[in-house]
Design brief:
38% of the residues lie in helices and 17% in strands. It is of the alpha/beta class. Helix 3 links the parallel strand 3 and strand 4. The longest helix is centred in the last third of the chain and has 24 residues. It starts with 14 loop residues before the first strand and ends with a helix.
């Protein structure tokens, strides 16, 4: 498979790189850090040797040509290594450590600090639509944009195997739950909450477990980087807003495979949730790769007026709505207009499935696929918006 470059930039200091399995962390590092020493904890021999005596990590530093950079792949498998890494970093002329993690749970459970601030934390995401030019919107909504899946000969089968492998190796092997059947039932139930306010009581009722169990299961998804939540935007709130966060599975393909469908399900609703989740994952990646302090929120009043995304930071203040439709009516921009009444400083964008940029009641409406393909970390949202408009003028 042809190597596809990523927007991710490595730090010049020791760092943790968090990202779900299959997103390409190891592939990218091996391509970008050719002179580094790689320690793969998925290698059974390496794992056994270091889990038995973590201090053996020092052996990798004692070579004829001591490496200036050491990559520890899947460091969460042996969290005790971090104590050794910390002590090495205290020494003069220490190497730079790059440590990849596909799960934060074991580090948190072992009460391991992330090297006392001596290492930065960075995030690695599935492909952005602008990174892989071979991807198109409809394909990504079906199979997602995890590189491991995108490159597979049979992506849907690979997606199912990916989820099963994740659950077997991370959940069952680590004994994170006593009842794996309940967890699989929970995964199906939680898929209905994708791109929605998360009501744990309803999920518990659906999968026949207690609310406390659902809380623990949701935290497992967050720790395994398989899901994320968006908080409600409350700064200078002039209206009463909801208290619950919105829930998203981390990838559109994972959502599509987990979400049951049948005669009573409306395909348009499933597609709408998938599209909103896809925009969310691209915006999260764009924020992380820009290395700025922009935060991603949503906004919803207790009366039900909602804006899908609010980006707020030193240089960005945008309200973004996503519509799974190729036509826009005045009612579709009401949420954005209400938000703008409360926050005059905010700019607004509506993303939709049409082909032409529009202006509806002063709101810029852009084709969602074109917007995502032009969304690159070297551009602000204002620059992306202008490029979408100018290319169609």
């Amino acid at each position: 498979m042809e190597f596809i470059g990523r927007y991710f930039e490595i730090s010049q200091v020791s760092s943790f790189i968090f990202g779900p399995r299959g997103t390409g962390k190891s592939t990218w590092l091996k391509s970008s850090l050719a002179g580094a020493r790689f320690i793969d904890l998925l290698d059974p021999t390496v794992f056994r040797r270091l889990v038995a005596q973590p201090n053996r990590l020092r052996d990798y530093l004692v070579t004829s040509q001591s490496p200036s950079t050491i990559v520890i792949d899947e460091v969460q498998r042996v969290p005790e290594l971090l104590t050794v890494v910390h002590s090495i970093l205290e020494e003069p002329n220490s190497p730079v450590f790059i440590m990849t993690c596909s799960s934060a749970r074991k580090l948190r459970r072992k009460n391991v600090d992330l090297l006392g601030g001596r290492a930065v934390v960075k995030n690695f995401h599935p492909f952005m639509l602008s990174e892989n030019k071979a991807l198109n919107l409809q394909t990504v909504l079906q199979i997602g944009s995890v590189p491991l899946i995108v490159s597979a000969d049979a992506p849907i089968e690979a997606l199912n195997a990916y989820i099963t492998s994740y659950i077997n190796e991370e959940v069952q092997t680590e004994a994170l739950t006593r009842n794996i059947e309940n967890f699989y039932r929970f995964l199906e139930a939680i898929s209905y909450s994708h791109a929605s306010l998360l009501n744990k009581t309803n999920v518990a009722r659906e999968c026949h477990v207690s609310r406390k169990v659902v809380e623990s299961y949701v935290n497992i998804l967050y720790d395994l980087l398989l899901a994320f939540q968006l908080p409600v935007f409350t700064k200078r709130a002039k209206r009463a807003v909801v208290a619950h966060s919105k829930f998203y599975l981390f990838d559109a393909g994972v959502f599509r495979v987990l979400r049951p469908s049948g005669p009573l399900d409306r395909p348009h609703e499933i597609d709408g949730a998938g599209l909103e989740g896809l925009v969310a994952q691209n915006l999260r990646a764009w924020i992380d790769y820009r290395n700025e302090r922009t935060k991603l929120y949503f906004w919803r009043t207790q009366g039900g007026t909602e804006v899908d995304f609010v980006l707020y930071g030193n240089s960005e203040f945008y309200a973004i709505e996503v519509k799974n439709s190729d036509r826009i009516e005045s009612k579709d921009v009401r949420g954005l207009k209400t938000f703008q009444k409360d926050y005059l400083e905010a700019s607004t964008i509506l993303l939709y499935r049409g082909q032409e940029p529009l202006s509806v009641n002063g709101v810029t409406c852009l084709p969602v696929e074109e917007f995502l393909k032009k969304l690159t970390p070297d551009q602000t949202l204002s620059e992306v918006r202008l490029e979408c408009i100018s290319n169609n003028s």
